[in-house]
């Protein structure tokens, strides 16, 4: 569908829904009470050596017939630039805990092949290593977040990798880096020590991990090029690890990691497919996504108790949807389609992160390309942008914006059987460009919401932006129809001093408010 047809389609959809827009809500944005800065890093990404997430999906190598820049697919790099990706975490995940950085440097044809035991037992020829990763982040304008190896690596490996990446002056490792093509230090902003060490990272207890963390982090170089250190954290957002770490870290750390995935039905076969699901799976997916709010509340409460001076923030460095893999896809490649439901899951997470802006300094969706809740899917030389990509793009103005309080006169509920979740989620902020932005999510797949907007401290004269919605809950982009789900232009005008926004069923709306 071209953009004109899409706009007409959306107007038709909105008109159809306006007829049923029975639920009215009054929403107030308080522009006179600015809250915390929304760290742009909550719009971060995660790229692991897993399936075709890196090899094929992003990295094709300089000799490939697929156009590339420094070996990275040009179509993917161009699309990622549009998202203003602030930070990328690499090389894992579980993969990081068996990665030896020395295998990924030097001439590519001489690098050893390793077996990716976590993810399908497939060979990894180490074509993507430290230098290639820094090329990628430079190409897309992101900061680098490299995750070290505490599971099978030694403190010496940690210290030497950091020296290789960041040391200035003269040393054997600096000379090796220069010999490999990079005389100047790389700009490493974040370094992770640990990943899911309660599970794939070594089945450790919090006490054992914390000792190891202190051991490794003690050898992190200091000085102006030193990265901020992120400590691996707990299981599914439980607070035990956050509690233990925040009381027992003795070496440098700036953040504690938290992982939580949206898994409809919380696992097993109940998680269901990525598309072709019934309404109960729509409900359980969104309900599970909203659980992130409760889990962050609990982790923030633990930090507020143990760390009132705010030495540590939380880095939600893995989040996203996890469904049954695409039928026929290779085992453990975690390939799944991405539908309108995923776009709503993403936007609900953004609202949650905005509301926890004081403590949540980073979040990294899992993962960038072809794995779990991806921005981009590829198949050979074909590439498409998912509904999640569009949700990220619509929210770019919220990066480094100042959050603003939003109140509702009532919270309409979306109910199905015995389950109920809020039908409306809203988040507002003053962007870096000085404009007021409002993001709205209607979780109800059948009913539109009539939202009247009042702004304290400003007169909202209109709203312009975009809406992401579709006729089906599982609408998605396929290689045959790569633009089936796309944002459409959206506008609302104020009449008699009142701004009314009709939020379509199952939609995400992001608007700038005219003042
Ligand atoms: O994102 C996929 C995997 O999920 C990561 O490797 C691991 O940290 C988590 O369990």
Describe the protein in words.
The protein is an alpha/beta fold and 515 residues long. Helices cover 25% and strands 27% of the residues. The chain has ten helices and 26 strands. The protein has helices spanning 3-18, 74-82, 130-140, 155-166, 172-179, 206-217, 240-248, 279-306, 340-355, 387-394; strands spanning 23-30, 44-46, 68-69, 72-73, 87-90, 114-116, 122-124, 143-147, 188-193, 228-234, 255-262, 313-321, 360-366, 376-379, 382-385, 402-404, 406-408, 413-416, 419-422, 424-430, 436-442, 449-456, 462-468, 488-495, 498-503, 507-514. Strands 16-20-21-26-23-24-25-22-1-17 form a ten-stranded mixed beta sheet. It has an eight-stranded parallel barrel with strand order 2-5-8-9-10-11-12-13, surrounded by five helices. Helix 7 links the parallel strand 10 and strand 11 (255-262). Helix 4 (155-166) packs across helix 5 and helix 7 (240-248) runs parallel beside helix 8 (279-306). The longest helix has 28 residues, at 279-306. It starts with a helix and ends with a strand. The model is unreliable at 7-19 (pLDDT under 50). It binds alpha-L-arabinofuranose (AHR). The site of alpha-L-arabinofuranose has 10 residues, from loops. Alpha-L-arabinofuranose binds at residues 48, 92-94, 195-196, 318, 366-367, 372.
